[in-house]
Structures are given as C-alpha cells and as structure tokens.
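Model it.
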Amino acid sequence: MSSRLSVLFILVSTIIISCTGDKSGDSNSRLLPKATGRAGEMIIVTDSAHWAGELGKALKETFREEVSGLPREEYLFKVNRVDPRKLNDLLKGVKNLVFVMALDSRSAETRALKSYFTESSIERIKKDPDIFVHTVKDEYAKGQNIMYLFSSTEKALTEKVKANKELIQTYFNQAENERLKAGLYKAKIPVGLRDLLRKDHNCSMTLPFGYQQVVNENGFVWFRQINDESDKNVFITYKDYKSQTQFEKDNLIAFRDSVAREQLFEDPDYPDTHILTETKVPYIPVVTEVITFNGSYAVEMRGLWKTANISMGGPFVGYALVDEELGRLYYVEGFVYSPGKNQREFMREMEVILSTFRTSNQFGS
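Modeled.
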C-alpha cells in the first residue's frame, strides 16, 4: 500500500467511530463464513438516484476503469449495484463490498443505508467535511474488505471520490493481490528455483508451485508454467548499469527486444518465432511509470508482445530496477499467452510473482 493510502486510512480510522465494528481481531471471526465471489467482483450498496447521477458516474469511472496493456477491453472490477433494502446475508458475504451514502438524500434506500452507521458517526460526518472513508476487514465474512464512502452531500462525496480515485482503487487492488498471493503460495514452494537465482544471478524470486526452469544462462533465466488455460512465463535479465537514460521507455523496449530476440521463442528451431514488443497498435501503447518497487526506484512497463511471425501474442508487465552494490540493471517480466481468455487475473498473478523479486542487498526482506 502506498504511504499516502496508509496515512489516509489510518487517519480516518482514528477519527471516526467504527460504522459497524471491525471483527478482524475478534475470536468470533473464526466462525465467519468464507467470503464469496470471483476475483475482481464487487458490490456497491447505494441509493439508485446516486448511482444514476454524478456520484454514480464517479464511482463507475473509479471501479470500471479500463486496465491498460491488455489485448481486449477489461475493467478493474466487475461492479454490481445493490439496493440497500435488499442487502441480504448472502450479498453481505462478498469479498469486496462498498457502502456509499450521502446524508442529503431522503430516500428510503438512504434511510436503510444509515442503519449501517452509528448515530455518533453520522454526527461526525455532518460536522467534519474532511472525513469521507472508512475501511473494515472481515466484517461479515473471512477474507472480506469493506469500504464505507460518505459525506453530508452528494456533491461533496462526488468530489472526494474523484480526488481520491487512485487511492480507492489501490485499496481494493491490494486486497485482491493479497488474496491471490495467499492462494498462489499455499502449495509447496519450489525452493530450488529460488536457490538457483541466488547462486547464479545474485537475486531472488519466489515462484509458485508448477513453474519450471526453461533457460538458465549468464544474464538470463526463464521460468514457465503451462496448463489448459494459459502459458505463463517469468524471466529475469540484467546488464551493467551505466546511466539513468537506461530507464527511458525506448531504451527499455530495445533492451527487452534484444534479449527476447536471443532467448524467447515459440519454437527455438525457427528464428522467426522470437518474441518482440508490439509497438504498432495505437490504442494499446506500451506505457511506463516510475514506481517504488520493494523500496527501490523502478520503472514499470506494460504492453503487448507478439512473435515475429505474428503467430502468438499477449500482454506483459515488467519492472526495471538497479542493484547498486553490483552496478547491475535488472529487468524482470511476466508475460502470458491465453488466446480467447480474459487476461486481467493472469496479469495480476504476474504482478504478485514479480513483487517477490529481491536484489542481493534485499535478501531476507
């Protein structure tokens, strides 16, 4: 979670009385059912008038934002709006649940929503326009994340949602990643692959069960997992770090393509099946962003890949960062081939796996 997001939610949690009470530390939480719903699904509980108006538009733009770097249109979350009066125990048990309330509404739906807030918290909302969000885990089910969004007026709440769009997205994206990580690493971890990385490449990564080593050479290592639905790939490559210009998009693409041309093939017996970066689809451009990656400066790169003979293709996500002690620029990437399937959750899996990458000075962190 970003530092801004942590500060925001910690601050709010300390100044607003809990809406319904966080059961995450309660022994009764062990008796809760497991949260339901597929990955990336969300229920928003709010007034129908708000959903049809500017507030609803802001919520849709937040949670239904298109995911970049995918071959077809996919959104961050699959969202369903539920009438507060029809929120039963089954619907309450979903993994991602959002309550949205503006106090200036006098509808029966909003009156039902108010039952999820204490009287003292409603008074606090009226008096303090700066607070607008509260988060709770494991309220009605284990593995659940709930967000309450609220304000005295619809206009004020709309502005808050718009201004904090990225932070709201990050909260639920991180919740999805944590659930996925728990599932990915539930089975026995192939520690031999992690040991190989430390011994041969002075870095570390935790691969889930089922990934196999494909290539291991000086400056390059490739792991792969193939099943009926997908062909998932992770590779690590590196070279001497010389200047900050190596982080520029064109230079990262050139580095990626130079490595792929030598190492990544659909069929090694046919050189024209090597992988390269797709840069000629104008509506799905390669995008880069400066981020903090496990405490280090890094550049994230997303886009599409294809084989030179255009027989295969799909999405990729990669991270470039420096091991300053070794003077080495690392580029770590996950890419997927899964024709005809939605790619969002496959790419989320790539993100989770890549997040376990560590440089030599980060071993043990």
